[in-house]
Specification:
Layout: E1 2-7, H1 10-19, E2 27-32, E3 42-43, H2 51-60, E4 65-68, H3 71-75, H4 78-84, E5 89-90, H5 94-101, H6 103-112, E6 120-123, H7 126-136, E7 140-144, E8 153-156, H8 159-171, E9 182-186, E10 191-200, E11 203-206, E12 211-212, E13 215-217, E14 221-224, E15 229-232, H9 239-259, E16 265-275, E17 278-285, H10 293-296, H11 304-312, E18 325-333, E19 356-359, E20 362-365, E21 368-371, E22 375-383, H12 386-397, E23 406-407, H13 414-417
Parallel strand pairs: 1-2, 1-4, 2-3, 4-5
Antiparallel strand pairs: 6-9, 7-8, 7-9, 10-11, 10-16, 12-15, 13-14, 15-18, 16-17, 18-22, 18-23, 19-22, 20-21
């Protein structure tokens, strides 16, 4: 088969790496891809949102399957367009991708179908939003309704911080149209985790859970980012608790989307929090999480193409997982998630003990790789124990002199390591 991956980040590099293990795959195309993907895929100079160009390429090069990585082309209806031309694409339709594209839609859906989530209100008027915050108190969560690249969420510790977030989003238009409306939510206490699943209509096939680290700096300080590192599986969750999340959240949402005439096919991502009352939903995404996919897919024994074919054909893919742990740590440009400089030379990272590098925001010049984004790359490794995987990752990163150009968190997975449930 010829397979095309749409996207250019770490998520898409991870998908391409997994595809490269498949005996069913002859050629992998990445549109537009990144410099690090060239070892396993042929890059195609077509933007993710150039639907006509992508369809033309798929036809010309006999692409048998297209996997859509990022959210924007999904919201633009790229899967619908492919299917209308008789081309196979894996991802939700435009109608179903609204589950990620509008937080208000997702919250209203959960309320209607009694899926556990935080109490909330939706606002487009700053004064009304501030009055609500004053009434509710802090901590409290302020979210841009639309897509904001993982940065449209403020977990405010004080009323003043929450009200500044309201001004940034509604008055200053920090995220453009994405923050024309905002969702203000109750703050939930507990451990956050991510649970992804392959979905086709009401059929839900969950993957192993993972835990992302959203805040920029050690100790969960600083602004939210697209993710600074992750690990899988999650030691503080029992099989029973994972089962509850599947039965009370993933399956009901899949059924709800069918009832709403928005059947979901693709990757359903649930950002969850384990509270004293059980798991509750923080957010839904309509695609693989990044960086979660970078630590989940390496532990999946199955052929990814076979899994997708099974799911699309309504068959159980019989997912199997390694009895191991995987961890990944993001190297980011100084200043991220705010303004940062591109084109900075990236020191050569010598990986060992089975570690590997996933490229995200990189570009290749004659002198080597340079930065081309906020999250530059991710160093990953597997191990029999989570501590082993993390030790291997940090052994690759720690000796390097990044000066003031890059940074990474030094405490990814440390909370899990403190748990008595961590080591098997």
């Amino acid at each position: 088969m010829n397979v095309m991956v749409i996207g250019r980040g770490g998520r898409e590099h991870s998908i391409a790496l997994k595809l490269s293990e498949s005996d069913k795959v002859e050629k992998i195309f990445a549109a537009p891809g990144n410099a690090g993907m060239e070892a396993v895929a042929k890059r195609v100079a077509i933007e993710e949102t150039d639907t006509a160009g992508l369809i033309g390429f798929a036809n010309e090069h006999a692409v048998d399957l297209t996997i859509v990585g990022p959210e924007n082309p999904l919201m633009d209806g790229v899967v619908d367009a492919f299917q209308e031309k008789g081309l196979k694409a894996f991802g939700p339709s435009k109608a179903a991708a609204i589950l990620e594209g509008s937080k208000q839609f997702a919250k209203d859906l959960m309320k209607t179908y009694e899926v556990p989530t935080a109490a909330y209100q939706v606002f487009n008027d700053a004064d009304a939003a501030k009055a609500y915050i004053e009434q509710q108190g802090a901590p409290i969560v302020v979210k841009a309704d639309g897509l904001a690249a993982g940065k449209g969420v403020v977990v405010a510790e004080t009323v003043a911080e929450a009200q500044r977030a309201v001004d940034d989003m509604l008055v200053e238009g920090q995220f453009g149209e994405a923050s024309n409306e905002i969702v203000i939510e109750e703050f939930l206490t507990g451990e956050e985790f991510s649970l992804m699943a392959f979905v086709n209509g009401e059929d839900v096939y969950p993957m192993i859970p993972s835990q992302d680290h959203k805040r920029a700096y050690d100790g969960d300080r600083g602004p939210n980012t697209g993710g600074m590192g992750a690990y899988a599986p999650v030691p503080f969750l029992t099989d029973s608790e994972i089962g509850v999340a599947v039965e009370r959240i993933l399956k009901p949402i899949a059924k709800a989307m069918v009832k709403e005439d928005r059947p979901f096919t693709g990757i359903l991502y649930a950002g969850l929090i384990q509270t004293e009352q059980g798991p509750q939903v923080i957010e839904f995404n309509a695609r693989f999480g990044d960086p979660e996919v970078q630590v989940v897919l390496p532990l999946m024994k199955n052929d990814l193409v076979q899994v997708i074919e099974d799911v699309l054909n309504g068959e159980d893919p019989q997912l199997e997982w390694e009895d191991a742990h995987c961890a990944g740590v993001v190297l980011a440009s100084a200043g991220y998630p705010g303004s940062y400089q591109k084109g900075v030379a990236i020191p050569a990272i010598e990986v060992s003990n089975g570690a590997w590098i996933v490229h995200a925001g990189t570009k290749r010049l004659e002198q080597g790789f340079v930065s081309d984004g906020g999250r530059v790359l991710l160093a990953a490794a597997k191990g029999d124990r989570l501590s082993d995987a993390l030790d291997t990752v940090y052994a690759s990163l720690n000796p390097l002199d990044f000066h003031d150009d890059f940074f990474y968190r030094t405490d990814i997975g440390k909370g899990a390591l403190r748990s008595s449930l961590t080591e098997k």
